[in-house]
Write a structure and sequence with these properties.
- By secondary structure, this protein is mostly helical.
- The chain has nine helices and no strands.
- GO terms for molecular function: kinase activity.
- This is ULK4 kinase.
- It comes from Campylorhamphus procurvoides.
Length: about 190
């Protein structure tokens, strides 16, 4: 019962930021990158609750999905102020569509990141995803949105700890994450 991910598409005309390719984003100067990132973060943090605002966030998240598959971009985005904002959106987004798309961005970032800074709050992300899965355990559609992101984060943490050859202080994985993961696997 694996849910196939639909291809990600975004509408560049309604994006509210320049729809640069990942290669173009990689070549931005520090100031341009900072401005771009600030704009993305402010669009995601917008508290407007209208249908148009939700569609705009979904469009922006779809764009982030397309650039997160590039290693350089994944490294830069996961280590930036965007990652905590994605966690905040997971916690408090107005619709489940947005939460599912945020989880997909997080999963893609974790999958394509090759170098993770120690200050990235991945343990918080694991805890949050675990809680969301536990709260929505009977909703298999939501579970299938959150599980891949949780798995990718756990794998990224394990890979980084293996590289460092010692456990990182802030990356303790809660027992609940393993319990939820095993329970999900056991139940199909």
């Amino acid at each position: 019962q694996i849910m196939k991910q639909v291809p990600v598409r975004f509408d560049s005309k309604t994006l509210h930021i320049p729809a640069h390719s990942a290669e173009k984003l990689s070549s931005l100067k520090d100031m341009e990158w900072s401005n771009f990132l600030k704009r993305v973060c402010s669009l995601l943090e917008s508290s407007e609750k209208s249908t148009g605002a939700a569609r705009s966030k979904l469009n922006l998240l779809s764009y982030l999905c397309t650039v997160a598959v590039h290693r350089d971009m994944a490294n830069r985005l996961i280590s930036s102020q965007l990652f905590p904002i994605l966690m905040q959106q997971l916690r408090a987004a107005s619709t489940w569509d947005i939460r599912a798309k945020v989880a997909r961005v997080v999963g893609l970032l974790a999958l394509h990141t090759s170098d993770l800074a120690e200050n990235v709050p991945v343990a918080e992300a694991v805890t949050l995803l675990t809680d969301l899965i536990r709260e929505n355990f009977r909703n298999s559609k939501l579970k299938q949105c959150f599980l891949p992101a949780l798995g990718e984060l756990l794998y990224l943490m394990a890979r980084e700890e293996e590289k460092a050859e010692q456990p990182r202080a802030g990356w303790a994985v809660p027992c609940a994450a393993y319990t939820v993961l095993v329970r999900c696997l056991r139940e199909g």
